[in-house]
Design the sequence.
């Protein structure tokens, strides 16, 4: 049971890193990014290649964040010229492009066979403890740092401008500030967090293959920030917890719901997640803690 | 000193010429009006001056610089501010945050500066906050300083937009219908604030349909119709001009 809880915690914390980044993109800046898993994949492969190639783990993590941030630059530049809905399509295309590139560039990525034998964080650092526990602690530290950075960025003049961009981009322009530079930087920071998540995930599962990086993961993260409340850090945290509880907790529906086979059960689980989301949108459209539009409501 | 000068600016949407031969000038500290019936091209001319609509021809000079090809943000940084016909407040920021966001040259807009120079950022924030407080007092917005801007009344949003432009320390402000949808008391208040601005040498160019309020406020006006400038002069003279009267009556000569 302990092992199961640790595994749950690891997945939740990987998702949380992803959600913190996507929340910066969408919740704070209004950028509709449907390709978040692309940054996750870049990070996972970057660190896997560096570390299996003999590089230090820290070098792998740094490369994961740097390359994911770099991959975000062209998307950030595109976002200057695209309306929100078109950006959504382009980012979705980006993440699929990353996945197909991984499939096809066999010389680098080993194609669909993937990269096996990625050392866990504990092995890479030579720590003689339970690898899962070591990873859990690493993830907790990374998430705390990420929350600190996101808090610093959003409660600042920078944060003011990105939220202003979300509310009205033309007005930001009229005040003499180029929204473009802000959007590119937001894209890069959020992507770096996703890259770090990808790297730690790779060192958790110890092998990577392209089929781990499908758009479904992007939409799980979207579900998390919508569940919790976009544009708030507490929203990302609560939403991620709720998502993991739903995805994992619905396993136990088997014990309650009679007359459902193992195969049918996976559909029932997705049905439960969907139903929860529909009910939430109906009764609490801003998410569990409320999104940015509800800011200050309780004060009033 | 001439602050803003446009020469033969034209804007066309496909085959439709919205503005043609638009030549105006505004001196430093001057209060100038721009009138004309609906569809005359006033807002489009504004957009060409502020950079939101590229000029198809002609030149726009501001403060001695040719800004015809510059982005709206760059023009604003020269000191060319504008408001919008429908207020464009940052709805989910407070009134104070709206004002502070507008201030130029903020150290804390850089990510590295935020992480490495927190003290300097904090000091600048304190200075900006008191600047915002001063402007809120000037515009009677102090009572709603911590309200979300989206919750303000229409008139308060107009004042907020004015305040935001003031935070940028403009040399000239383009007002697009500052009195539209505003009650008579507030019209007087906004007029007073605009007058006070020009006493501090900030020039204004105002598009407005409320001709009484506008002619009381400005010293000179231009009239437009069907994309062209019909005439220019002191408010009373211009409004007495038969061509201008015809344009407003919708008369076809």
Sequence:
């Amino acid at each position: 049971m302990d092992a199961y809880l640790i595994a749950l915690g690891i997945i939740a914390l990987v998702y949380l890193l992803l959600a913190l980044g996507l929340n910066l993109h969408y919740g704070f800046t209004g950028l509709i990014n449907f390709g978040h898993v692309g940054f996750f994949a870049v990070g996972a492969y970057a660190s896997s290649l560096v570390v299996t190639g003999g590089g230090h783990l820290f070098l792998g993590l740094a490369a994961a964040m740097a390359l994911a941030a770099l991959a975000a630059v062209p998307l950030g530049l595109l976002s200057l010229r695209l309306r929100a809905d078109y950006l959504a399509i382009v980012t979705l295309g980006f993440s699929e492009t990353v996945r197909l590139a991984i499939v096809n560039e066999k010389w680098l990525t080993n194609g669909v066979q993937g990269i096996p034998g990625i050392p866990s964080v504990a092995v890479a650092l030579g720590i003689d403890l339970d690898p899962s526990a070591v990873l859990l602690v690493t993830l907790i530290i990374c998430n705390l740092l990420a929350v600190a950075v996101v808090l610093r960025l959003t409660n600042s003049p920078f944060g003011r401008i990105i939220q202003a961009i979300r509310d009205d981009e033309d007005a930001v322009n009229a005040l003499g500030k180029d929204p473009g530079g802000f959007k590119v930087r937001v894209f890069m920071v959020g992507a770096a967090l996703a890259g770090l998540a990808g790297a730690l995930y790779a060192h958790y599962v110890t092998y990577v293959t392209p089929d781990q990086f499908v758009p479904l993961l992007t939409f799980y993260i979207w579900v998390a920030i919508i569940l919790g409340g976009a544009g708030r850090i507490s929203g990302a945290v609560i939403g991620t917890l709720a998502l993991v509880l739903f995805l994992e907790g619905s396993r136990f529906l088997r014990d309650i719901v009679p007359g459902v086979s193992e195969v049918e059960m996976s559909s029932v689980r997705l049905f439960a997640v969907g139903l929860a989301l529909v009910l939430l949108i109906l009764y609490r459209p801003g998410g569990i803690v409320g999104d940015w539009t509800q800011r200050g409501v309780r004060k009033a | 000193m001439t602050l803003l000068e446009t020469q033969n600016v034209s804007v066309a949407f496909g085959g439709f010429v919205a503005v043609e031969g638009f030549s105006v000038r505004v001196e430093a500290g001057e209060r100038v009006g721009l009138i004309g019936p609906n569809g005359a091209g006033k807002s489009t001319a504004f957009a060409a001056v502020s950079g939101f609509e590229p000029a198809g021809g002609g030149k726009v000079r501001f403060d001695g610089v040719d800004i015809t090809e510059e982005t709206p943000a760059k023009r604003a940084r020269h000191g060319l501010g504008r408001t919008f016909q429908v207020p464009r407040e940052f709805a989910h920021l407070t009134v104070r945050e709206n004002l502070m966001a507008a201030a130029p040259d903020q150290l804390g807009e850089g990510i590295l500066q935020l992480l490495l120079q927190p003290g300097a950022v904090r000091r600048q924030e304190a200075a900006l906050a008191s600047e915002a407080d001063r402007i809120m007092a000037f515009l009677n917005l102090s009572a709603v300083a911590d309200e979300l801007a989206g919750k303000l009344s229409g008139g308060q949003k107009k004042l907020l937009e004015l305040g935001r432009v003031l935070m940028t320390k403009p040399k000239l402000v383009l007002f697009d219908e500052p009195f539209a949808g505003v009650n008579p008391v507030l019209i007087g208040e906004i007029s007073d604030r605009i007058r006070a601005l020009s006493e501090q040498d900030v020039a204004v160019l105002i598009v407005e349909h409320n001709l009484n309020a506008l002619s009381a406020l400005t010293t000179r006006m231009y009239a437009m119709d069907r994309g062209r400038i019909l005439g220019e002069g002191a408010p009373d003279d211009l409004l007495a001009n038969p061509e201008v009267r015809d344009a407003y009556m919708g008369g076809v000569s």
Summary: Residues 2-28 of chain A form the longest helix (27 residues). Chain A touches chain B through 31 residues (CB under 8 Å). The mean pLDDT of chain A is 92. The two ends of chain A are 45 Å apart (CA to CA).
